[in-house]
Each structure stands twice: as C-alpha cells, then as structure tokens.
Design brief:
alpha+beta, CBS-domain, 5 strands, CBS domain
C-alpha cells in the first residue's frame, strides 16, 4: 500500500497558493492558468483554508457577488481536511469519498508539503491494482 509521501515523490513539488486578502478574480485566474481545481489559502507559512472551483460557483456566482471585490477569505473553506505523508492512499480515498472533497493538503510537522488530488489517488490505486494483478498472474503461471 502506497503512502502519501511516495505519491508526492511522483508529482511536481510546486504548491499553488493565494493570500486570504487577494481578490477572488486573481484566484480564478491562477487556477485557470495552472489548470487546477483548487488553491491553498496561505497566511505566510500557515494554511488558512482552501479555495475550490466549487466554492467559487456556490459562494460567488450563485450569490451574485463580484469576483473583483470579494476577498478569498470570504469564500474559502476554512476547516481544511488534511493528511500527513505517512497516511495511505486508501485512507485518503476514504477521506475524499466520505467528505465529498477533491483535494487534500499534505501537512508535515505543521508545514504544507504538497497537495493530493482525487485524480492522483485514483492513479495510485489503479497502479497498485495493476501491480497486484501482475504479481498474481506471475504466481499462477509459475
């Protein structure tokens, strides 16, 4: 079973973030430029929240707010569910499924070291299953 640390080793180490006081339009532009669905909201080194496209749709578009005049802090999810580098991919899959979220910040010793998306987790689970299937086929054939 793979750990989050092993999963992060296969990804780019870049962490995309924005400040809580930034206008929402800047966050949406950054997500579009980077082709990502969420940004970490950081106050210096501290994780203050997470902002997803879903937050934008529900808290700006549907409520008729202005993307230029609304700060990120007003629409971000402040109660962030995170994982540690030692957590398993199975545990992470359970978290995203039960919590209906798509992104998990990875926090080690109080510091954000990465983000794991549901897409990353699905790829990891498929790779693990493929490896197990190959192992079983070799066992049966021998």
């Amino acid at each position: 079973m793979r750990t989050v640390r092993q999963l992060l080793e296969t990804k780019s180490p870049e962490i995309h973030s924005i400040a809580p006081g930034a206008p929402v339009i800047d966050a949406i532009r950054l997500m579009a430029e980077r082709r990502i669905g969420a940004l970490l909201v950081m106050e210096g080194p501290r994780l203050a929240g997470i902002l997803s496209e879903r937050d934008y749709a529900r808290k700006v578009v549907l409520q008729g707010r202005s993307s230029k005049d609304t700060p990120v802090r007003d629409i971000m999810t402040a109660e962030v569910i995170s994982v540690g580098p030692q957590d398993s991919t199975d545990h992470c899959m359970q978290l995203v499924t039960d919590s209906r979220i798509r992104h998990l910040p990875v926090v080690d010793d109080g510091q954000v070291i990465g983000v794991v998306s549901i897409g990353d987790l699905v790829k990891a689970v498929i790779a693990e299953q493929r490896q197990e299937l190959d192992h079983l086929q070799r066992y049966i054939a021998s």
